[in-house]
Specification:
The structure holds 2 protein chains of 2 kinds.
Chain A: H1 3-13, E1 18-24, E2 27-32, H2 37-46, E3 54-62, H3 73-78, E4 103-110, E5 117-124, E6 130-132, H4 141-152, E7 155-157
Parallel strand pairs in A: 2-5, 6-7
Antiparallel strand pairs in A: 1-2, 3-4, 4-5
Chain B: H1 4-14, E1 19-23, H2 27-35, E2 58-62, H3 70-79, E3 85-89, H4 91-95, E4 116-118, H5 125-140
Helix pairs in contact in B: 1-5, 2-5
Classes of the chains: A alpha/beta, B alpha/beta.
């Protein structure tokens, strides 16, 4: 399936769960409510129409500082696109960050059999940063979810071993949150700077 | 004031460097290039890396050291028998390099004393051999007791 038909198929199957969708440069994205995530993921994996047996990536985005600062000069002058190009036509441009929620948990599913790919975004609020774990479907989600917990402080309901994976246990806070001070150092040994 | 015995011990030590390669990152590629036959580090008596710190004379710290790794590095250093020397291989071990973040140690000399700094990202093998020769000169001039020289003071500066 191409991006548009994939989005349509997901919308047909889960009309209430899909909050928004877009297909930017041929990459399909659906934004879904977290209550529907586990069911949606199971359908994507097991339904013959999708057959998405490969969890390519599981990560998160902190949108709390999005758009509050000008683009770094390096990117502005390098030709790297900091916003969708106006010169390249795009039928469904990126609509921007989700309407609610500080964080977005991002899943990339891929079908090895049908060669199609879907990005699923799940917005979560800061005060209740928790989504369902996908370990029951993909064992590989285990470490990916631990990394998201470590870096962003988003919990995964049903994870059997939700502890830090990159940082050490003594580390306080979640370093990829935008409100983590960029100069804060927490060495195990040695000076603080 | 160097006696003939000091001179002989220094000569023997500087040509029998048994390194412990503490390799954590991409600098390891240049370390391997230096150690292999093309650059032939064996010409300088440093051809036999030991993979136990108890058998090593020189700790080659090759690659970025994270805060999580720092206690391990210190423990390796403490397991080495005197006389021992430390080489900071690559700019990450010298100063932290281009990393300035929550995860990276800003130079291993905040954790262990360093004898020779070899900057570069990564340093070319010729640069490594130059550092090795400087280390040999340092070893040659050390006193008979094997007491290590004090690490060079680093300039204090603030950004």
């Amino acid at each position: 399936m191409n991006a548009e038909s994939l989005i349509q198929a997901v919308k047909d199957r889960f009309p209430k769960a899909v909050e928004a969708s877009h297909a930017y440069r041929g990459d399909a994205t659906v934004v879904v409510h977290r209550e529907s995530l586990l069911e949606l993921a199971r359908t994507l994996k097991e339904d013959p129409a999708f057959q998405m047996n490969f969890l390519m990536d599981l990560t998160a985005v902190d949108y709390s500082a999005f758009g509050t600062k000008p683009a770094p000069a390096f990117f502005a002058s390098s030709g790297v696109a900091v916003r969708p190009s106006t010169t390249i036509p795009d039928k469904a441009p990126w609509p921007g960050p989700p309407a609610f929620g500080r964080f977005v948990v991002v899943y990339h599913f891929f079908s090895l059999a049908l060669k199609h790919r879907l990005r699923v975004e799940v917005p979560v609020e800061e005060t209740d940063a928790e989504v369902d774990s996908l370990i029951s479907l993909w064992g590989g989600a285990n470490w990916l979810e631990r990394e998201v917990w470590d870096m962003f402080g988003i919990r995964f309901r049903g994870h059997p071993n939700l502890k830090r994976i990159l940082m050490y246990d003594e580390f306080e806070g979640h370093p990829l949150r935008k409100d983590y001070p960029v100069n804060k150092r927490q060495p195990l040994i040695g000076p603080d700077n | 004031m160097t006696s003939r015995l000091d001179e002989a011990i220094g000569w023997a030590r500087k040509f029998s460097i048994f390194q412990y390669p503490f390799v954590t990152a991409c600098c390891g590629m240049e370390y391997m290039a230096t150690a292999c036959s093309h650059y032939d580090v064996d010409r300088f008596g440093a051809g036999l890396p030991r993979f136990s710190p108890r058998q090593a004379d020189v700790l080659f710290v090759v690659g970025t050291i994270s805060h999580k790794m720092a206690p391990v590095l210190l423990r390796i250093y403490e397991q080495m028998a005197e006389p021992k020397w430390v080489v900071a291989f690559g700019v990450c071990t010298c100063t932290g390099g281009f990393y300035d973040n929550y995860a990276t140690v800003m130079g291993i000399d905040t954790i262990v004393p360093v004898d020779i700094y070899i900057p570069g990202c990564p340093p070319r093998p010729e640069y490594v051999l130059d550092g090795l020769l400087k280390l040999q000169a340092k070893i040659q001039n050390q006193r008979e007791t094997g007491e290590r020289s004090a690490p060079e003071p680093r300039p204090e500066f603030s950004v």
